[in-house]
Design brief:
This protein is an alpha+beta fold. The protein folds into two domains: 165 residues, N-terminal domain of MutM-like DNA repair proteins, CATH 3.20.190; 115 residues, Helicase, Ruva Protein, domain 3, CATH 1.10.8.50. The chain has a seven-stranded antiparallel β-sheet with strand order 3-2-1-8-10-9-4. It has a four-stranded antiparallel β-sheet with strand order 5-6-7-11. The chain is 24% helix and 23% strand. A hairpin with a 4-residue loop joins strand 6 and strand 7. The N and C termini lie far apart (52 Å). 41% of the residues are buried. The chain contains seven helices and 13 strands.
């Protein structure tokens, strides 16, 4: 059943309890889903949830017309050309690659959506109030509108000929939650790498989809200090990281990235310096590295 109004949101408001006040702002506000709150750049689990909600609302719908309200969001195509090519197209299928959402059209083109820092989608009945910071409106023939909203205008939308070519041209690594991505692939990528394991996990040229929040979460469950050099990790430790990466993504997607549905032993719920570790009872520490704040447990994620 399609609700009369669906919001998929990212913003920087903080209105959760103090224990998660450094992390959570509005993420989703859905009439047919309970409210989710986060204040982070969308990573792979978020984009997968976007994809699933897109499938339950806009998929297989025909576009009556498109209005580009801010052509700065478009990449490699003019507003006029985008509007013309999208008119009368139908959303046929969706696919996620890392932090990107791809929507295949019946015109042999593919819509590429990247959410940047604050991008989100809203699916709203025609005639309802237009969301603030709307950049593109897809007017659908079923009486609903799909809005691409991006307050900070750091997202990107484009039409591409081929998803695989786009991935190659943008030098994106494999999607880290794809069924095709195996332990052997991960091991090969890590072989000979220098620098910290956290940096390696976040390098989109090698591994697509992991950002600051989920790299911390993966290493938290792997018992690995975030700034451990990759070349000092043994094969068993690397395999643990791979397995925990899969587990973290699976649990986050299962929870629809809703705070109240995350397992109680997740760092996300205690991501604040001085909090009690939900795994071992140690203290959560915050450490800055390359301009990013990382959180870890000083008790079970010991420095090597």
């Amino acid at each position: 059943m399609i609700a009369s109004k669906i919001y998929i949101k990212f913003n920087a408001e903080i209105n959760q309890a103090r224990s998660i006040s450094n992390l959570f702002g509005n993420l989703y506000n859905l009439d047919c889903f309970s409210e989710i709150k986060r204040r982070v750049m969308p990573e792979l689990p978020d984009v997968e949830v976007f994809r699933q909600i897109f499938n339950s609302t806009a998929l297989n719908q025909k576009i009556a017309k498109v209005d580009v309200l801010d052509d700065g969001i478009l990449e490699n195509i003019s507003s006029r050309a985008f509007e013309i090519r999208m008119k009368n197209a139908t959303f046929q299928s969706t696919h996620r690659h890392g932090k990107y959402l791809f929507v295949e059209l019946d015109t042999e083109k593919t819509l590429m959506i990247h959410f940047g820092m604050t991008g989100y989608l809203e699916y709203i009945k025609d005639g309802d109030k237009e969301p603030e910071y709307s950049r593109i409106i897809f007017n659908l023939k079923n009486g609903y509108n799909l809005y691409y909203v991006c307050p900070r205008k750091l997202g990107r939308v484009s039409l591409v000929e081929d998803e695989a070519d786009f991935i190659e041209e943008n030098k994106l690594g494999p999607d880290t939650y794809s069924d095709d991505f195996k332990w052997e692939d991960f091991r090969e990528i890590m072989k000979g790498k220098r620098g910290s394991i956290k940096t390696a996990l976040m390098d989109q040229k090698f591994l697509a989809g992991i950002g600051n929040i989920y790299s911390d979460e993966i290493l938290f469950h792997s018992n690995i200090y975030p700034f451990t050099e990759v070349n000092v990790l043994n094969e068993e430790e690397l395999k643990t990281i791979f397995e925990k990466m899969r587990m973290v993504f699976e649990q986050a997607i299962k929870a629809e990235v809703k705070v109240e549905k995350f397992p109680k032993n997740f760092l996300l719920l205690k991501r604040s310096e001085g909090e009690e570790c939900p795994i071992c009872g140690g203290k959560i520490k915050r450490e800055k590295y390359s301009g990013r704040s990382s959180y870890y447990c000083e008790a079970h994620q010991k420095k090597k």
